[in-house]
Amino acid sequence: MADQDIKKKVKEQFGKNAEKYVASVSHANASDLAALVEWLKPEQSWSVLDVATGGGHVSKALSPHVSHVTSTDLTLQMLSAARKHVSESCSNVSYVVADAEALPFLNDTFDAAACRIAAHHFPNPAQFVHEVSRILKPGGKFLLIDNVSPEDKSLDRFVNTMEKLRDESHGRCYSVEEWQQWFAQEGLAVRHSELRKKKFDFPVWVRRTAQSEEQVMSVVNHILSADEPTARYFSVEKDAGQIVSIQIDEWMVMAEKV
């Protein structure tokens, strides 16, 4: 699929489901957002870029600690929902419709940038990393949180197939090794990282993006077809034959522009 077609799918999906992402438990995870602030250690003078803000949770978390947050998203409806969510308590956030792979900002503009649970929708992650490095000031910090694929190729195929069945706008969960290579190419030195498991309430998670019960069942059948090692890796939990929860890998990393 061409990049523009992928981005069109993203706009359609997030435009239709904007309010769901604002209310999403996994996206609004308070401990996750607190860790993001703790890792960045933002200063009151900073200007920060929030890339692909989604429901605006990162912008809202960082706003009290910095001078200004620029909140961006590819999807106008998503950005509008984020503003409604954030502006109730934050007056130092501005909103810009922007493609993460072609950021409309000058070089060396921001003290920090963050992107949380979004990059698996980007068709050209290496270009995204290039753009983030370009707009950061020397010594600027970049914090990324995203779903990642295991190094094992069969597990990689399983999780990416599952995500694509659930969400047509899904691009790809990339591996930690791939991200590390892109960071190194763009002069971003990893200072701190953590690979962890993220658990989803399956019925809620699958229906956030699925457009029909047929689509839900395609995800269910894919998961139920997994062999025992795969089901164990993703901690598939069932009750009376129904999928209750599933876990996937998530990587949190902070890098510095050197």
Automatic annotation (TrEMBL):
It comes from the Bacteria. Keywords: Methyltransferase, Transferase. One of its GO terms (biological process) is methylation. InterPro entries: Methyltransf_11, SAM-dependent_MTases_sf. Residues 49-143 form the Methyltransferase type domain. Gene3D superfamilies: Vaccinia Virus protein VP39. GO terms for molecular function: methyltransferase activity. This is Methylase.
